TrEMBL record:
Protein role: Binds amino acids.
ACT domain sequence ranges: 95-175
Domain of life: Eukaryota
Lineage: Eukaryota, Viridiplantae, Streptophyta, Embryophyta, Tracheophyta
Cited CDD domains: ACT_UUR-ACR-like
Protein name per its UniProtKB record: ACT domain-containing protein ACR
């Protein structure tokens, strides 16, 4: 695998014998090499309820000037990178859309990285609009031919794409949350998670509700959101997860026993998500 999620059980780790490396004063990283890839483990906050670590593989460029068929010009304004994972629009495939102004090429390396995750790219197309060039892929699991429904694999897809952006378009580093750890230039400003977090629930027909979450992005967020929702016996039917610069925007179609969420359950869900996503006020080590 090019990228795998290593949860507490260790079921998805890709390397052993990791070596600790310096991370410029931040929490130390542990890295290893695997079939020509460099894999680094990113510590997640101790508050995270599902996962302790995420193993993120960053492909090495074939040369210092390697660019994934796109423009490496960084003299103009850097656009906001966008990665959309759409589970709604196609019943048979997961749709992935990547936008970075007009700088992206054919993304062959990204497609190869997705194949290394055990996925098939069954369709790819490109379209242009005022926001730039949009690369869209329809992907399925190679061993079943069906769309991806595992939150851990969906998060691995997202991190794979973001890592390729950082590798082949290093100017995106200052526009992405992962740029603080893996990029050449961290974001100039950190998002205040308390201010950035918005959670709303709307009616969405007779059988489900629509949960909308916007918050500061970080590795593992998609997995943790789904874990919190399902921990209170709410079913996630489908949804969309967007990474837009430093922000993450999620839309989940949810239900409880085949029905929309009643007001009391909506309040429980909103409070649970706010508690998990809020900025910590006290260091856990102080207890």
């Amino acid at each position: 695998m090019a990228v795998a999620v290593a949860v507490a059980s260790g079921s998805r780790g890709i390397c052993s014998g990791l070596k600790q490396v310096d991370n410029n004063g931040v929490a130390p990283l542990k890295c290893c090499a695997y079939r020509g890839l460099r894999s680094c483990v990113v510590p997640v906050s101790a508050k995270a309820r599902l996962s302790s670590f995420f193993a993120i593989s960053i492909p090495r460029a074939t040369s210092p000037t390697a660019v994934e068929d796109g423009s490496s010009n960084v003299t103009d304004t850097v656009p906001t990178p966008k990665v959309i994972i759409d589970q709604d629009s196609d019943p048979d495939a997961t749709i992935v859309e990547i936008t970075f102004g007009d700088r992206l090429g054919s993304l062959l390396d990204t497609m190869n990285a997705l194949k290394n995750l055990g996925l098939n790219v069954v369709k790819a197309n490109v379209y242009l609009d005022s926001s730039g060039k949009h690369n869209k892929f329809a992907i399925t699991k190679a061993y079943t031919g069906r769309k991806v429904d595992d939150p851990e694999l969906l998060e691995a897809i997202r991190l794979t794409i973001i890592n390729n952006l950082l590798q082949y378009h290093p100017e995106s580093s200052s526009q992405l949350a992962l740029g603080a750890t893996f990029g050449v230039e961290p974001p100039a400003q950190q998002i205040d998670v308390d201010i950035a977090t918005h959670i709303d629930i709307y009616d969405d027909g007779p059988d489900r509700s629509l949960l909308v979450v916007e918050t500061a992005d970080r590795p593992g967020l998609l997995v943790d959101l789904v874990k919190i929702i399902t921990d209170i016996n709410i079913t996630v039917q489908s949804g969309e997860f967007d990474t837009e610069g430093l922000l993450a925007k999620a839309k989940f179609h949810v239900s409880y026993r085949g029905k929309p969420l009643i007001k009391a359950l909506q309040l429980v869900l909103i409070n649970s998500l706010r508690y998990f996503l809020r900025r910590p006020t006290t260091e856990e080590a102080s207890f």
